[in-house]
């Protein structure tokens, strides 16, 4: 990466699984940081985190936390916290990057995957949203075809890891699995149902139309990011007993016929995507492969013999990295390159 | 059930997970059995099984095993074993029910789910095939709509349990999970990849067209059972770390518009299917619910707002019961009712 300005960064949700991964990624990318502050709920306040040789004490978030000395505020807490604190931080001059669903569909707020629609950052109004952790890998996998041959319909089924529900989800799967191996069904309450050795077709709450909010997010966010308001998307979102890697089986129909070999080539040129697709060698990505990596891994790219305009494929990514924290660091880097953050940006 | 004749039954693969479940189901249904013989490979020969107060010693299968004294031979072994022994047993007068893929697409062999196409038994030629354990629940869930409003296209993603790979698959998941909880990746070799806390988008071998045999089975078998040669089916078959319940997310397009409430009612009338679908109460079936039951459980029935002819739904069934052994017992019962088996049937 080109050198970035050392910004004053505050993380709300600094004790959470995404907040911790965010610090790790700053380190991995050697991102310059001017000053780092970690905020969390009262429960986590007072605990400490090591970062580049300093000990940072986590403080409790309050409306007074945003005093105008932040360049960037990364909100990785609840939708409620985002609705309360994002406008405050924005009004005090910070570029707010929000990982909740609170502002994603707000027409004033860009929803950004840097590799896909970095230009949308130019019209930010102080708040930038980042997509749901299932939307990002799907859009990354399909965009390289879509930009040449527009998408018409997506049917997608997800295989989502428990980390999407936070650190408690990870611990819940561990404890439930240990119990289940001993013959005991002991739901931890971290998912909608017992998740050990199970598959739960409900992520987030139900809506009136019998879809879940997660399914609706995948549809609406994809349309917004790709600026494709008429794109048909039918999603089924399912939690399975994996830890970090979100996977999805995607069937996508495009306006014109798609050759799977050409699709594979197009996808392989996409930054942030790695094609792992060798049927002869039985090579394809799995959630275990994706964990700890930044790439979206794509495989099982193949034709639908009954529909020349359609292909099927399989995508996997780490829900906490490219699905969340990595994308935020990339948004900061991109905003920096474009002079959209920090002193002199007008923010 | 009406009283059935007590047939002389032989199970090839009597030591396997499906063979054992078959005996359990005979007991549960109080199916009369004249004489029961269990055959297996040399490795299992000599071990014993209790059945209705008798001890049955498992014998090694050989061409000489079929001496003309069987009414029914249930083959639950490899495709190779089926190809070798099915014609022998058939030629010595038995009704052969085959659980392998060896004869499923043979135009002389009916492929039967009793609730859907029992009439196909009438043209059996001594061998009846039963569908792959993923085909059965999908067809059972869609048939009640299809018979009124023909299917045009299916896009399906499976969440398949390890029991589909036999008893070794179940043990493999246990041992891999125990190792993984201790931080060790120790693939058991029972699936194409490590399956503990993973999702593996390959069931069975790859074909030339980059689909897997399992995916092709779902497409071809569905077309044959429903007598719908032009039906478009795109399947992605994925193994996940569940033990017995096969689940699947189905998107299905029909010739005419489908109202999800009417679809739900139609599915609820289907014998062998139980609708569990109350979004308000967060009720839907999961693999843990399906294990040990004979029903195909269907939920998450909803419209696709972008396509009036399409609905999405979620189906789960026990891969070893309705996916395998239960369906076989039902085929025997149905053949009995129709006078297609045993003395006097011409077999």
Could you give a short description of this structure?
The structure is a homodimer of 347-residue chains. With 347 residues, chain A is α/β, with parallel strands linked by helices.
Short key terms for the protein model shown above:
6-stranded mixed β-sheet; alpha/beta; homodimer; globular; 347 residues; 9 helices
Side-by-side strand order of the widest sheet of chain A: 5-2-1-6-7-8
Compressed to H and E, one letter per element, the order of chain A equals: EHEEEEEHEHEHEHHEEHEHEEH
Oligomer: homodimer
Enumerate the spans of chain A where pLDDT stays under 50 for 5 or more consecutive residues.
none
Q: Biggest interface between protein chains, with counts per chain?
A: A-B, 56 and 56 residues
Radius of gyration of chain A: 20 Å
Could you give a short account of the major beta sheet of chain A? 6 strands, parallel
Number of strands of chain A: 14
What class do helices, strands and sheet pairing of chain A give?
alpha/beta
Give the amount of beta strand of chain A, in percent.
15-25%
- Distance between termini of chain A? 23 Å
Helix content of chain A: 25-40%
Number of helices of chain A: 9
Shape designation of chain A: globular
